[in-house]
Design brief:
Elements lengths: L4 H54 L6 H83 L1
Helix pairs in contact: 1-2
Length: 148
């Protein structure tokens, strides 16, 4: 027996929904990674500021050359770490943008397929109602003609 249009579309809608759900999971993952990376960046930046302020307070009365060299070396390393963390944040933002686009595509496709599926259901229901009405009219007509 041949399946009607809505039955054929049902599996397509189910697959489209699954693909949209997978895209949502990926979107949630990248948003979490981005938030973690931003938090790490902020923590590093705050640590750098505090370390710098502490050094300035301690060296206000003077400092030796080796302490100053150690401070500058440490700050350079810390700046490199902060710069790398900033690159991580930027990379996550780019990934988020790409994953959002994929999710939007999957979401739009799912909605379109769901609308087509619902229209097919409505059409089949209308056709079935017309057929039922015609059969009812035919039976009524037959009964009416028998009585005459």
């Amino acid at each position: 027996m041949q399946r009607n249009r809505s039955e054929r579309l049902k599996s397509i809608v189910k697959l489209a929904k699954h693909e949209e759900d997978v895209a949502v999971v990926e979107l949630v993952k990248i948003k979490k990674i981005l938030a973690d990376n931003k938090t790490r960046y902020d923590e590093l930046d705050e640590y750098r500021r505090q370390y710098f302020d502490k050094h300035n307070l301690e060296s206000a009365s003077g400092t030796d050359v080796s302490s100053l060299i150690n401070f500058k070396n440490f700050m350079a390393k810390l700046d490199n770490v902060i710069a790398q963390q900033n690159k991580n944040v930027e990379s996550c933002l780019a990934s988020l943008d790409a994953i959002e686009k994929v999710w939007i595509e999957k979401h739009v496709y799912y909605k379109k397929m769901d609308d087509i599926f619902n229209k097919a259901l409505d059409s089949e229901k209308t056709t079935r109602n017309k057929k039922d009405q015609k059969e009812s009219d035919d039976i009524s007509q037959t009964l009416y003609q028998r009585k005459r």
